[in-house]
Design goal:
Blueprint lengths: L5 E4 L2 E4 L3 H10 L5 E4 L8 H4 L4 E2 L5 H14 L6 H20 L17 E2 L9 E2 L6 H20 L2 E4 L2 E9 L2 E9 L4 E5 L2 E4 L20 H9 L3 E2 L4 E8 L11 H5 L3 E3 L19 H12 L10 E4 L8 H4 L1 H8 L9 E11 L2 E3 L11 E3 L4 E2 L12 H19 L19 H21 L6 H23 L5 H22 L17 H4 L2 E5 L2 E5 L2
Parallel strand pairs: 1-10, 2-3, 2-11, 3-7, 11-18, 17-19
Antiparallel strand pairs: 4-6, 5-6, 8-9, 9-10, 12-17, 12-20, 13-16, 14-15, 15-16, 20-21
Helix pairs in contact: 1-5, 1-11, 3-4, 4-11, 6-14, 12-13, 12-14, 13-14
Length: 542
C-alpha cells in the first residue's frame, strides 16, 4: 500500500533521545521549537543501558588534572587534548546540573544528603565514578533528563517527541542541511524543514554479531551524515567491552567494568589469574588491553576450539554484591548464576564507537546546518580507546555545547526546502526475510573480519563480502519498496564499509585497533586521525 508523505517545519530536529540528544533539546527549547526523534520509546538508547556510572572529577583541580591524564593515557596517543580538557573541566558543572534536575546518584547510607559514593574502574587513577541504583546509572540519567524535557514540553510546548520514528536522510542545498526525512512506525514518511539538525543517534554496535548494544544501535545518524557528504573520523576504533556474559543462546549481557573496580579477577579455564602477563594494572588495565587478553586466553580462531574465560568475585568480602549490582545479579540469577558463588563465563563484545561524524569542539560537522554529539560524533576526545565511564559525561558536555553552537550559528529556514519526501512502500514477507538474512551475514562477517584482531587478508575478505551484501541491498532499494529494517540494513552496510576501509588504511596497532600484521604502534606515520569522505580515507594531525 502506498503511504502518503507530508511536509512539516520546525526550528530544530534532534535525532536521538539519549543523554546527548536530550541535554541538547533542553537547551534548544529556550530559543525555538524542538522535535526530538527517537526510534523506539523515549529513553530507549545506549544511555539507558549504561551500567557502571559516569566519570567526573568532583574533588578539585588535582582531580580534574588526573582525570585529564587518565583520559589521554587510555586513548593511546590519539586523544585530541583540547576536547579532553573541555570534557573534564566542564563535566563537574554538567553533573551538578543533572543532580539539580533530579538525578539520584548513590550516596552513603542511602541518605539523600549523604556523600556521593564513588567507585574506580579500569585505567582510572582514583575512584571518581558516580553510580545510581547500583548498576543502573544510565537508566537514572535517562529518567531524569526525560522528566525534565517532558516538564519543559508541558510548561512551554517547546519540545515535541516523535517516538518510533527514524531519520532516513538529510536534504542538502548549497552545502547546507535544510531538511530531514523521517519514517514512522506505520511506514509513513515526511520531510521536515529545519533551521538545524543535531544527530545524537548513538553508535552502531549492531554492525557486529556479538554486542552489548540494544537493537536500535544501527548507526543511522552516521550513515545519513556520510551519505549527505559529511566527513567521518576514526571509524577503525571500535571498542570491545572485555566482559560480556558468554552463555550459549543468551544475548551478550554487559557485565560492568565496576565489577573489576570492586575487585573481580579474570581467570582462564585452568583457573589461572592471567592479567599479570599482559599489563601492570592487571584487571584494571585499559579496555583494549583486557579485551585482547581475554581473546588470546579464551577465543580461538575457530569458535568450536574456544576455551572459557571467567569473571571471579568469590573472594570479594565486605560488600553485598546483590545490593551493589542488583540488575546484574537479577539477570545472572535467571541463568542459575551468582556473583558471590560462581565463576561467570565472559567474552568481549562490541560496545562503543570512538569514531563517528567529524565535529569541532562545539558539535559542528563539515556541513553547514548539521551538528552531532555523543557516540555518533567524533571530536577526538576518546582517541583510540575510550576511558571507562567517560561516555555519559561526553554526552552531557558536548550535547550542551552543540546546542549552544546551533543557537549561535542560526541562519534561519531555507526558502526552497519544502518539497515532499519520497513515499515509502512496505516490503513483502520474502523481501523482509532477505533483509534479515543480509543483516545477519553482515554482522557475522564483521565479527570475523574486523573484530578484535585484524590483518590485511581478513579485512579484504570483509570488504569483498560487504560488496556482495551491498549489491543485494541495492537491488532491494531499486525495487522502490522499503521499510525501517531496510533503512537499518543500509546504515549498517555504510558503517561497516567505513570501519573496514579505515582499518585497512591504518597499518599499525593502536588502542582498540589491533593488526596482527602490523602489531606495533607507529607514531611517525599514524599519530593522526583517519578522516573519510565519500569513501576515501586520509590521515590528519589535529
Amino acid at each position: 500500500m502506498v503511504q502518503s508523505s507530508q511536509v512539516d517545519r520546525t526550528d530544530f530536529v534532534v535525532v536521538g533521545a539519549g543523554v546527548a540528544g536530550l541535554r541538547a533539546a533542553i537547551e534548544l527549547a529556550s530559543q525555538g521549537e524542538v522535535l526530538v526523534v527517537t526510534k523506539e520509546s523515549l529513553g530507549e538508547s545506549n544511555t539507558h543501558y549504561a551500567q557502571g556510572g559516569i566519570a567526573v572529577a568532583t574533588e578539585g583541580r588535582e582531580d580534574v588534572a588526573l582525570h585529564l591524564e587518565d583520559t589521554v593515557g587510555a586513548g593511546d596517543g590519539l586523544v585530541f587534548r583540547p576536547a579532553a580538557e573541555l570534557l573534564v573541566q566542564e563535566g563537574p558543572g554538567r553533573v551538578a546540573e543533572l543532580i539539580d534536575w533530579g538525578a539520584a546518584f548513590d550516596r552513603e547510607n542511602h541518605n539523600p544528603q549523604g556523600e556521593l559514593l564513588r567507585t574506580r574502574e579500569a585505567a582510572h587513577s582514583r575512584p571518581r565514578i558516580l553510580h545510581a541504583n547500583g548498576d543502573a546509572t544510565g537508566a537514572e540519567i535517562s529518567r531524569s533528563l526525560v522528566a525534565h524535557a517532558r516538564e519543559i514540553a508541558r510548561s512551554h510546548c517547546r519540545i515535541r517527541f516523535a517516538e518510533w520514528t527514524m531519520a532516513t536522510g538529510l536534504v542538502v542545498e548549497g552545502g547546507r542541511v535544510v531538511a530531514v526525512d523521517l519514517l514512522d512506525a506505520q511506514n509513513v514518511s515526511r520531510r521536515v524543514g529545519v533551521r538545524a539538525v543535531l544527530l545524537a543517534s548513538g553508535g552502531a554496535g549492531q554492525v557486529y554479531s556479538d554486542t552489548t548494544n540494544p537493537a536500535v544501535a544501527t548507526g543511522d545518524g552516521i550513515a545519513i551524515a556520510a551519505q549527505a557528504g559529511a566527513e567521518l573520523a576514526d571509524m577503525e576504533f571500535y571498542q570491545f567491552h572485555p566482559t560480556a556474559l558468554s552463555l550459549p543462546g543468551v544475548p551478550r549481557f554487559l557485565l560492568s567494568e565496576a565489577l573489576r573496580g570492586e575487585g573481580a579477577y579474570l581467570r582462564n579455564d585452568c583457573g589461572e589469574r592471567f592479567m599479570e602477563r599482559y599489563h601492570a594494572q592487571l584487571e584494571l588495565a585499559p579496555r583494549d588491553v583486557v579485551a585482547r587478553a581475554i581473546a588470546r586466553e579464551g577465543m580461538g580462531a575457530n569458535p568450536a576450539d574456544s576455551r572459557l574465560v571467567y569473571l571471579d568475585m568469590r573472594h570479594v568480602t565486605g560488600i553485598d554484591l546483590t545490593v551493589r549490582f542488583p540488575g546484574i545479579s537479577r539477570f545472572l540469577a535467571t541463568h542459575g548464576l551468582s556473583l558471590q558463588t560462581d565463576l561467570i563465563p565472559v567474552r568481549p563484545a562490541a560496545h562503543y564507537m570512538m569514531g563517528g561524524i567529524r565535529t569541532d569542539l562545539d558539535g559542528r560537522t563539515t556541513l553547514q546546518g548539521l551538528y552531532a554529539a555523543g557516540e555518533a560524533a567524533c571530536t577526538g576526545v576518546h582517541g583510540a580507546n575510550r576511558l571507562a565511564s567517560n561516555s555519559l559525561l561526553e554526552g552531557l558536555v558536548f550535547g550542551a555545547r552543540a546546542a549552544g553552537a546551533i543557537l549561535a550559528d542560526d541562519s534561519g529556514f531555507s526558502q526552497t526546502a519544502a518539497t515532499a519526501a519520497a513515499t515509502v512502500l512496505g516490503l513483502g514477507d520474502e523481501e523482509t526475510s532477505l533483509v534479515e538474512a543480509l543483516i545477519g551475514r553482515l554482522q557475522r562477517s564483521m565479527w570475523a573480519h574486523a573484530g578484535l584482531l585484524r590483518e590485511e587478508t581478513t579485512l579484504r575478505q570483509g570488504i569483498a563480502e560487504l560488496t556482495e551484501i551491498a549489491l543485494a541491498l541495492r537491488q532491494l532499494n531499486e525495487n522502490g519498496r522499503g521499510s525501517r529494517r531496510l533503512f537499518e540494513a543500509n546504515a549498517l552496510a555504510s558503517v561497516a564499509g567505513s570501519i573496514l576501509r579505515a582499518a585497512l588504511a591504518r597499518t599499525e596497532s593502536r588502542g582498540a585497533h589491533f593488526r596482527n600484521d602490523f602489531s606495533r604502534r607507529d607514531d611517525v606515520h599514524f599519530q593522526k586521525h583517519s578522516v573519510e569522505r565519500n569513501g576515501e580515507v586520509r590521515f590528519e594531525a589535529w
